[in-house]
Amino acid sequence: MSQQHENLSALIDGEQHDDGLIDAVSQDAELAAKWQRYHLIRQGLRKELPPNGQFDISAQVAAALNEEATVLAPKQRRWQDLPVVAQVLPLARQGGQFAIAASVAVAMVLGVQQINTQDPTEPFNTTQPQLPGVQGGMSPVSLEQTRPLQQTDMLEQRRRINAFLNDHRQQMQLRTIEPVADEQQAQEQPAQASEDQPE
Amino acid sequence: MSSKHRSNQRKPVKINLNKSLRVWTAVCCLSGGLVASFATLAQSQTPDTDIAVSSYPSDSPEAWLAKMANAFTSLNYQMSFVLLKPGMNAQPYLWRHGIAPDGTSMEQLNLLNGPGREVLRVGNEVSYFEPNVPPYTLRSTIINGPLPMAFFRDPLQLSGSYEFMLVGRSRVSGRAAQQLRVVSRDKSRFGLNLWLDQETGLPLKMNRVDLQGQLLEQIQVTALDVTAEADDYFSRIELAKLPEVVTFPPSPRSSHQWQIDFMPTGMQLVKWDVHRLPITGDVVEYVMLSDGIVDISIYLQPASASRVTEDVLLRHESDTFLSRRQGDAHVTVIGKLPAQTANAIAASVKLVTP
């Protein structure tokens, strides 16, 4: 088979004239497709491609992918909740010809993004109910006030906890606004004093 | 092992330290590359250091902290450090400080992973550049970030509430380091293990540990570079292009009269206002307490207004989250502090209706 491919390549390059091979190409669909692709590659290498070439392959891939789409993306999970996927998937839908590349990109971006994400805005998952009590990432601290939470209140409870944690982070971020007036005066004087000394 | 041994035997320590100090300086002088920068450093910094350190015995923890505070504001340095917290990826940061030719202290803190977060302090104005938020500037003397900057600036103001102990010497980030322990006197707050650079006094490693000595959060410096001149980065800053200073109008105080009876010693009231929570939109009365090492948020809601029904206590990353019903109020306490202290603060809140 690979010998045949090599012969085909040689034929296209004009280095071989084998009528048997030409017959084989005209009969074998796979070989014919190869013939087409080789020409495409050659044109590409020689920069002879038309500016907006119509490539059959992309359309075929897109069609194949459209048929398989339901299997590839089961709708049980709400992908809208995932920030990256929500942005990338509609893109992938728009450009059918980019679908394969895009899906690979999604996997890569997801992988990279998972490494890079920090400070999630909702550290406690509020999307779907889980078992009550302590979940991953937290370690229990024993105190008498702790009671297992009711399943029905879980989501609301978590939303509130997230709100508090978010606000705490925000407040830490905006800290030192109000004490500045006092602190500034207190710290300006020693700062000036220390600046004077070396001179 | 050796550090424990040293701290137990007080007398021989001095001799050992002095001897090893001499050895260390000799080693330092032999290592070519570093000599130039340290020599200039030593010359330029001696007057300041002498004054700050002279009021304490030279081998006391206070002298070391004074040296740290001095180095923190007066040296030109650049360091990379990594922040490690439970349940979280390591976060690498770049931290630079420089004194501009006109004497302005400039500082940059840059989060290196992901979309990033850059903070720039020029004098008393701190500009924050963050993803998804328009850049803004706050009037402040310190950068808000993973480092307890207020503590680094003025560590000795905490001597009433924290005890400082010299532990021993070790090697951190490839440099000789002096280890110090900062322990809450009344055991109401978590402690710090601090490793300071033997030469400059700059922090090389900081562990936040709970009352049992378990690690909660770690900052590890991976590279430290002290230079005679401020980094070029600071000379490229265009001051006119920095975002405008944001001022917040004084927020309305609620009609409720709250009273917090218990505050750990050394804690100060930093903020007291009324605002809405981001996700739920609940209106809360907000109090922030701080001692320079930890910031604690306290949220107060009248029990009638609050839809919270359950008491919750949990640990998120290194923060403790406590939410409990207290008489007619619902109190939520968040911060890096022991659960017992959070509970004591929450239990001391009283709602005094006028």
Automatic annotation (TrEMBL), chain A:
<dbReference type="InterPro" id="IPR052383">
    <property type="entry name" value="Anti-sigma-E_RseA-like"/>
</dbReference>
<feature type="compositionally biased region" description="Low complexity">
    <location>
        <begin position="182"/>
        <end position="199"/>
    </location>
</feature>
<feature type="region of interest" description="Disordered">
    <location>
        <begin position="174"/>
        <end position="199"/>
    </location>
</feature>
<dbReference type="InterPro" id="IPR005572">
    <property type="entry name" value="Anti-sigma_E_RseA_N"/>
</dbReference>
<dbReference type="Pfam" id="PF03872">
    <property type="entry name" value="RseA_N"/>
</dbReference>
<dbReference type="Pfam" id="PF03873">
    <property type="entry name" value="RseA_C"/>
</dbReference>
<feature type="domain" description="Anti sigma-E protein RseA N-terminal">
    <location>
        <begin position="4"/>
        <end position="77"/>
    </location>
</feature>
<keyword id="KW-1133">Transmembrane helix</keyword>
<feature type="domain" description="Anti sigma-E protein RseA C-terminal">
    <location>
        <begin position="131"/>
        <end position="172"/>
    </location>
</feature>
<dbReference type="InterPro" id="IPR036147">
    <property type="entry name" value="Anti-sigma_E_RseA_N_sf"/>
</dbReference>
<keyword id="KW-0997">Cell inner membrane</keyword>
<dbReference type="InterPro" id="IPR026279">
    <property type="entry name" value="RseA"/>
</dbReference>
<dbReference type="InterPro" id="IPR005573">
    <property type="entry name" value="Anti-sigma_E_RseA_C"/>
</dbReference>
<keyword id="KW-0472">Membrane</keyword>
<protein>
    <recommendedName>
        <fullName>Anti-sigma-E factor RseA</fullName>
    </recommendedName>
</protein>
<comment type="function">
    <text>An anti-sigma factor for extracytoplasmic function (ECF) sigma factor sigma-E (RpoE). ECF sigma factors are held in an inactive form by an anti-sigma factor until released by regulated intramembrane proteolysis (RIP). RIP occurs when an extracytoplasmic signal triggers a concerted proteolytic cascade to transmit information and elicit cellular responses.</text>
</comment>
<comment type="subunit">
    <text>Interacts 1:1 with ECF RNA polymerase sigma-E (RpoE); this inhibits the interaction of sigma-E with the RNA polymerase catalytic core and leads to a decreased expression of sigma-E-regulated genes. Interacts with RseB.</text>
</comment>
<keyword id="KW-0812">Transmembrane</keyword>
<comment type="similarity">
    <text>Belongs to the RseA family.</text>
</comment>
<keyword id="KW-1003">Cell membrane</keyword>
From TrEMBL, chain B:
<keyword id="KW-0732">Signal</keyword>
<dbReference type="InterPro" id="IPR005588">
    <property type="entry name" value="MucB_RseB"/>
</dbReference>
<protein>
    <submittedName>
        <fullName>MucB/RseB C-terminal domain-containing protein</fullName>
    </submittedName>
</protein>
<dbReference type="InterPro" id="IPR033434">
    <property type="entry name" value="MucB/RseB_N"/>
</dbReference>
<feature type="domain" description="MucB/RseB C-terminal">
    <location>
        <begin position="254"/>
        <end position="350"/>
    </location>
</feature>
<dbReference type="InterPro" id="IPR033436">
    <property type="entry name" value="MucB/RseB_C"/>
</dbReference>
<dbReference type="Pfam" id="PF03888">
    <property type="entry name" value="MucB_RseB"/>
</dbReference>
<feature type="domain" description="MucB/RseB N-terminal">
    <location>
        <begin position="60"/>
        <end position="231"/>
    </location>
</feature>
<keyword id="KW-0574">Periplasm</keyword>
<dbReference type="InterPro" id="IPR038484">
    <property type="entry name" value="MucB/RseB_C_sf"/>
</dbReference>
<comment type="similarity">
    <text>Belongs to the RseB family.</text>
</comment>
<dbReference type="Pfam" id="PF17188">
    <property type="entry name" value="MucB_RseB_C"/>
</dbReference>
